[in-house]
Hints:
Radius of gyration: 22 Å
Order of helices and strands: HEHHEEEEEHEEEEEEEHEEEEEHEEHEEH
Strand content: 25-35%
Number of strands: 22
Oligomer: single chain
Shape: globular
Mean pLDDT: 94
Largest sheet: 10 strands, mixed
Distance between the termini: 59 Å
Structural class: alpha+beta
Amino acid sequence: MSFPVRTEAQLRQKQERGVLSVRSAAEFRKLVAQHGMAPAYAATDVVVAADACFTDQASLHLGLGASEPPIRFRQALVGGVSAATGHGSSELVLAIGGGLGEPKRLGGAQVLGALIGGQQVSIDASGEATALHPRRELHSQIQLEQLATGRLLLHRAIAENGVVAVSSAEGLTASPYGPLLGPFANALYSCAGAGSIGLTMPGLALLGPGSPVLVGGAIGWVVGSGSGHQPKPKRQASGHALSPGCSAAVAVDLHPLRSPWVRACFFEGHGSALLIATAVPVPLINRKVAEQAAADNASLQAPVLDLALPRRLKPNLGLASYDQLLGGQLELNGQRLSCAPAHSPRLAEAHGEELARQLRDGRFPLRLPPIPLGQRPSLLALDD
Length: 384
């Protein structure tokens, strides 16, 4: 049976007619197992892949509009969190992370959570008086609908693969994935394996600047390569990365974000972060894309890294299959470790289902990227 190549125009025509066949990655794998690759390919136009991961690699951009009289911000607190100024008279930027040394443990994540949850947040700012901006202070309260503009920039929204975090140190090691117990008492894995975006779409090959992404329940857009982008990692014969590999940065407007899929959190010893859901369509444009999307957890692997050492390059202790990780047990050097996800499978599944609905009824644009992600790596050393 043949695997006819599909074009963007053909897929969009099917979407417009309401006959686009959309399946989750799990449904597609099941169909392949039951009937074979060729029938599954013929019966499926688009596979949906989804993640719900923790991140503090993000920034919150707020445009407050003009006060009366106008003010040009030079120092500002938003919801008690320090904001960067100087990007315009009333533009503010907050880091999503932080708050580790603050008594209230607040970062930009908590400000975002309050805003999209419908709460008011305080604005306390001082200005630099000029002829056109004479105001020196501003103390107010603001809700999301009162913001002139708001945007969340996820500097590393999507990565090809994750890591398995362990610790060789005695006691508790704080990490961006959660608490690690050592020596080698537990393992936390940051990627869901089969069905995740990067392991359904190796190389993030169908994403590029301008590609639409469902993020936090809203349509966002890939802006380019993300933090830690490594386009040439070690790969399996199938093309799947054996490390985090490629990454993509995504921007999304705040106003349509939905709080069930964007949650502020705080990691002891590390700081504020977001748990945020993302989902993308993977158009099955040819046989290779379909075969990569059908990979199962037994054939996919992630690197096991020792996070106990505060070094740029963490000791790599080998590879673990996602079958092992999802089974809750990992054997490392003859020792059994309990495994737990440092992500939310339930949230990812629900978000993927939402994207599938939007694709079927035409609310989500189906686009192939005009250009791919860049080939220049952004995982570079910074030495003294």
